[in-house]
Amino acid sequence: MKLLVVEDDEATGSYIARGLREEGQTVDLVVSGRDALLLATSNTYDVLIVDRMIPDVDGMTLVKTLRGAGNQTPVLFLTSLGSVEDRIDGLNAGGDDYLTKPFVFGELSARVAALARRPQVVVHETSLDVGDLHMDLLTRKVNRAGRNIDLLPREFALLEHLVRRKGRIQTRTMLLESVWDISFDPKTNLVETHISRLRTKVDKPFTTKLIKTVRGAGYRIDA
Amino acid sequence: MTHQLPVLLRSMPFRLALLLVALFAAISLLSFGATYVMAVRSIDQSMQNDLRQDMTGFRAAPSAAALAALVEAEASVTDPQRLVLSFISGDGRSFGNSILARDEDGYRLISLEDGNAQIQGTYLTLTDTLWGGQLTIARNRQDVEALRDAYWRIFALSLFPTIILGFSGALYFASRSARQVSEIGAALDLMTKGDLNARVMPRSNWSADLAGIGGKVDLLAQAQEASVATIKQVSSDIAHDLKTPLQRVGVHLNDLKHQTELSSEATDLIEKARLELDDMALVFVSLLQIAQIESGSARAQFAPLDLDALAGDFCELYEFSAADSGRTLSFVGMGETVMVDGDRTLLGQVLANLIENAIRHTPKGSDIVASVSQVNRRVTLAVTDNGTGIPASEHDLVLRRLYRRDQSRTTPGSGLGLSLVTSIAKLHNANVILSDATPGLRVQIVFESNNPNHLMGRRNKREAGYFEQRTSRKEVLDGEHRDIS
């Protein structure tokens, strides 16, 4: 993946760039909006990581300008302003996701990966499979290796979210946002307890464990 | 409109117009009165002249007998209702068409023709002694009385349209200015609620004084908006300037952790420092959020939401965590939609804070109940536990910023949770009430003004809602924005 990072704080910028490069991504790092505009219009990137407050051209204006010029590259905003209004402003300007500072790298990496692989068209499947697990989206029934698994509605939603994104890391906050529609970070380990309940139903009776914990980042489902 | 009528009647333009009508009526009455008195005086004057002239005529009689004959002759062709002639001669005989009698009630005229009937009416009399007898001539003042009636009628006729016109004019001007006043009031209400975009914008047909006030209100709002924008800019600058170093410390800690030769003590220290950093960020974010909420601008994003469903969702979310920590969490809802105008994220934070507080500050084995209830239009969200509770003397203190009870110093938390709850409640026009649940603590969020138009029918089975997951946060936010733009 080719990524552009626009961050005026040197320490944060190089931390992001180094982390992403360690993951094998190609990263261009610039400190000003003007440089970012130049690079983004002359290259093709998979994702733009843009700080809201940068010199010359601020992040909002940069993304608005790019969108105005027909550039649809997914944008992840980095923001110091965490209020709902600020987030809405950012998303209205053409941003696709946001991350409030201070953040941990795992969160950033997972969100960038999710943006880059965002499906262009929503496919309406009627069933989902991962390994020997089968989910029927119409009857809301789940079975694994021919054995029925009873799930509560929210457990079904959580499992569906993970299976739809199999192989990709989903962080705690990403799960809270998508499954529970919660955009703030509760201080209780809510996601952990829900995942653990899901595991006792989906993984415990079987030898192969499908739901994997990615240390310091989140969860992933894999066959 | 009818319930506004009393307000209209008490309004200034109406009172002014009414005062003018009353003043006009009083002046008309005075001038009519003066004209009437003058007219009566002149009629009386001419009647007195007539009487004197009549008397002079009778004085010309050469003897008592001639006078009596003259009086009789005159009286025979004169109606006593108009002119009374009475001559009582020296030997006591009466001539004329009436006798002027006198008793304790005053004078009375007795007719000599119609069986001594008493003659009614007001008369102007002149009496003189002639030829040893007494001659009385009296003229009826009925013309004067007719004049008085005519004057009253003219006065009433001329005043009636004035009063009607004045009254309707007063109502018209009162309602006209009431509209302008209510437009100013509506703009001020919006500003009070935090919408500093609100403007009166007086139109050219407004009365000059109200337009002047409206214009000044607009100027005030404009200045206020500018200063709030400055404060916002300053706080976002501070946010940026402080969060960036926090982020940097995190980066440095991360770098340090990746150095190869580190003792396990050093790794532990790094982890501790990282946790402290998280707490710092949490306090900072909370303080910033409280300030932002108190600016009131988040009201612009308000949309009707189902508080019953929201509270149910949060209880479901926290149920397992509560169970893992040895407490039970249950939800008692209305089983139907309970709509309030609000921000889903902020009200979610209220629920999260109250539930987390209850889990954190109760002994193991405690029961926590979240509930939503509605009585008439008043919606109450409550979280009740049967733990050790908080003494009533500390109820006000725990709502203060950064206040931590001695007993809670060892448990994690910033001391900002309840003040965040209070500021969010205030933003939603709701009150936070702490009370003793004997035993335990009950925290109630009482929504004072709930729009009844939002109350809808019974919700479909709750389970149905669980699958209507919105696929991404972005879509939700986009949707919200479309509503407000």
From TrEMBL, chain A:
Residues 2-116 form the Response regulatory domain. PROSITE patterns: OMPR_PHOB (PS51755), RESPONSE_REGULATORY (PS50110). GO terms for molecular function: phosphorelay response regulator activity; transcription cis-regulatory region binding. One of its GO terms (biological process) is regulation of DNA-templated transcription. Keywords: DNA-binding, Phosphoprotein, Transcription, Transcription regulation, Two-component regulatory system. Gene3D superfamilies: 3.40.50.2300, 6.10.250.690, Winged helix-like DNA-binding domain superfamily/Winged helix DNA-binding domain (1.10.10.10). The keyword Metal-binding does not apply. Residues 125-223 form the OmpR/PhoB-type domain. PANTHER family: REGULATOR OF RPOS (PTHR48111), TWO-COMPONENT RESPONSE REGULATOR (PTHR48111:SF76). The keyword Transcription applies. The modification 4-aspartylphosphate is found at D51. This is Two-component system OmpR family response regulator. Residues 125-223 bind DNA. It holds the Pfam family Trans_reg_C. GO terms for cellular component: cytosol; protein-DNA complex. InterPro entries: CheY-like_superfamily (IPR011006), OmpR/PhoB-type_DNA-bd (IPR001867), Sig_transdc_resp-reg_C-effctor (IPR016032), Sig_transdc_resp-reg_receiver (IPR001789), WalR-like (IPR039420), WH-like_DNA-bd_sf (IPR036388). It comes from Primorskyibacter sedentarius. It comes from the Bacteria.
TrEMBL record, chain B:
Keywords: Kinase, Membrane, Phosphoprotein, Transferase, Transmembrane, Transmembrane helix. Its main location: membrane. Pfam families: HATPase_c (PF02518). The keyword Transmembrane applies. SUPFAM superfamilies: ATPase domain of HSP90 chaperone/DNA topoisomerase II/histidine kinase, Homodimeric domain of signal transducing histidine kinase. It is found in: Membrane. Its EC number is 2.7.13.3. InterPro entries: HATPase_C_sf, HATPase_dom, His_kinase_dom, HisK_dim/P_dom, HisK_dim/P_sf, Sig_transdc_His_kin-like_C, TCS_sensor_his_kinase. One of its GO terms (molecular function) is phosphorelay sensor kinase activity. It catalyses: ATP + protein L-histidine = ADP + protein N-phospho-L-histidine. The chain crosses the membrane at residues 150-174. PANTHER family: HISTIDINE KINASE (PTHR45436:SF8), SENSOR HISTIDINE KINASE YKOH (PTHR45436). This is histidine kinase. The lineage of its organism: Bacteria, Pseudomonadati, Pseudomonadota, Alphaproteobacteria, Rhodobacterales.
